[in-house]
Each structure stands twice: as C-alpha cells, then as structure tokens.
Amino acid sequence: MPPMSFIGQVSKVGFMDKTATVTVSRFIFHSKTGKRLERSKKYLTHDESNQLRMQDTVLIRNCPPISARKRFTLEKVIKSPEREREALHARQAAEAAAGATA
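-> structure tokens emitted (102 positions)
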C-alpha cells in the first residue's frame, strides 16, 4: 500500500483501548450539476498513549495492519479544542491571581 496520510477530526474515542475513530472529509464535484459535495469516511486509528479527545484535528498515516479494521496510526495532533480551553482557563486563573495580589 502506498504511503497515505490524512487530516481528519476525532469523532469517537474511549470505547476501545488505544483506538480512536477519525472522520476524514473530502469534497468532490458532481459530474452533471457541478455542485460541490462533501464525502466522508471513518478510519480506526491507533493511539498508543490514549491522548486523543473528541473534536481534535489530527494527522493520521497508514501502517501495517494492527487489527482487522485498524490500519492507521496517529502521526500528530494538529489542534485540540479541549487542551486550548484548559490552557485559556489556566491563563485566566494566573491573571486573576496576579491581579488579586497587586
């Protein structure tokens, strides 16, 4: 199988150990109407450290089969809304603490 990598969004996580479902969307043009259509496909992805959360944007890459349906592994997390939200709350708490002492 040639090397493939996709950027997708985590749609299901936590039901199977070290596994997440990543939805990869692509756009095609209808041959007769010329309208743009969205097509999506779900891939089971190996997540060795169980670090993925819902709605994370990730880069996945194909690998030798890990199980019957799992053929992709996590390459890197591109964007994580949950981690960004936690960082924002920590920053606001630090600013509030600094403002209270000043």
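The beta strands are 5-13, 19-29, 36-46, 57-62, 70-79.
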